[in-house]
Amino acid sequence: MGIESILVIILIGAIAGWLAGQIVKGFGFGLLGNIVVGIVGAFVAGSIFPVIGLGFGGGILGSIIHATLGAVILLFLIKLVKRA
Questions:
Q1: Does the pLDDT of residue 30 top 80, yes or no?
Q2: Is 70 helix (H, G, I), strand (E, B) or coil?
Q3: How many CB atoms lie within 10 A of CB 8?
Q4: What average pLDDT does the segment 51-72 reach?
């Protein structure tokens, strides 16, 4: 994996984490936290969405949507755990 790939992953993770923080109000973890939430959210979505038959196509926009939805799920789960 080249440096360009790593930079794209970080950029998509940052955008997805920020968008998820905006969607799930009250959850923002700063730049580094948003990147981590976005990347982990992409892995969560990559595990869940193929099982239920969802796909968003290829390209950067599809990746951002995919990672954002996964990050929203992750933030929702974090919110549930913090309430308990």
A1: no
A2: helix
A3: 13
A4: 84
Q: Smallest Cα–Cα separation from 79: which of 29, 35, 36?
A: 29
Q: Where are the domains of the chain?
A: 3-83
Q: 13-31 burial, b for 16+ CB within 10 Å, e for fewer? A: bbbbbbbbbeebeebbeee
Six-digit token string for 81 = 């755990």
pLDDT mean across residues, the chain: 83
CA distances from 62 to 12, 34, 44, 55, 67 (A): 10, 18, 15, 9, 9
CA distance linking residue 64 with residue 68, whole number of Å: 6
Q: Where are the alpha helices (DSSP H) in the chain?
A: 3-23, 30-52, 59-83
Q: 1 pLDDT exceeds 70?
A: yes
